[in-house]
Amino acid sequence: MRKSYGIAETRRRPRFRRGRVLLVLAALAAVAGAFAVVMNPVGVPASGAANLGGTVNTRWGRLSTDDRKLLVAVRQAGLWEIPAGQQAQQRASRPRVREVGEIIMQQHMQLDADARATAQRLGVLLPNEPNGSQKSWLREMSGKYGIDYDKTFVLRLRAAHGSVFTVIAKVRAQSENTEIRAFAERSMKFVNTHMSLLESTGLVPRRALH
Question: What would the pLDDT profile of 61-94 be if each residue is shown by its tens digit?
Fold first, then answer.
């Protein structure tokens, strides 16, 4: 009886080890599958094609070059207008300009978070610094004081908002991507608000309204 028990036990051990190996392999496969889902979320091409030129398909519709340009433009707007708004709170001579600077800074922080989240869903790479012109505007404002600073701040931001306004309007009218259209609508509300705020300072000359 003891002998037969030992044989049965010996036969069971390899089966047990095989079972453990299968469980480990299954667990590894599950982890690999979950990793693949995280690294390649639904709607984002595995090849990263959404970051290339031309139009690509996503779960929210076709994503065009202009759609990507909108996300980049809004992201870059925040990268220089957030520090500009912060600077205005410290340097502007008029209380209304300081107030407008704070509101614009806070709202651009919200819009920037929206742009980054939308870009992540669509697989679009965004810049991490302002463009050359925006850097030059920041340097220009850093050399101004008093009413000269107030005027420069308002003029530069008003002109920038007017430029991005046309980009948003074009993309909203032409985009086939539902995520981009919704983002364009949200962006438009912020831009309209900021232009009105800047105009409320009384420092926007008539020539800047054409």
Answer: 999 999 999 999 999 999 999 999 999 999 999 9
Task: Decide if 86 contacts 78 (C-beta within 8 A).
Answer: no
* Contact indicator for 80, 137 with CB cutoff of 8 Å: yes
What is d(CA 59, CA 106) in angstroms, rounded to the nearest whole number? 32
Element (H, E) at 58: strand 56-58
How far are the Cα atoms of 49, 64, 113, 125, 193 from residue 40, in angstroms, in the given order? 12, 20, 21, 14, 36
Which of 187, 181, 185 has the alpha carbon at shortest distance from 67? 181
Place of tokens 């810049």: 127
CA 177 to chain centre: 16
At 126 the three-state DSSP class reads: coil
Written as six digits, the tokens of 167 are: 């980009």
Strand partners, 194: none
Q: What is the pLDDT of residues 28-57, one digit of tens each?
A: 343 333 333 333 333 333 334 445 568 999
β-partners of residue 146 are: 92
Q: CA-CA distance, 156 to 147, in Å (whole number)? A: 14
3-state secondary structure of 115: helix
CA distances from 139 to 83, 105, 152 (A): 11, 18, 11
Tell me the pTM: 0.73
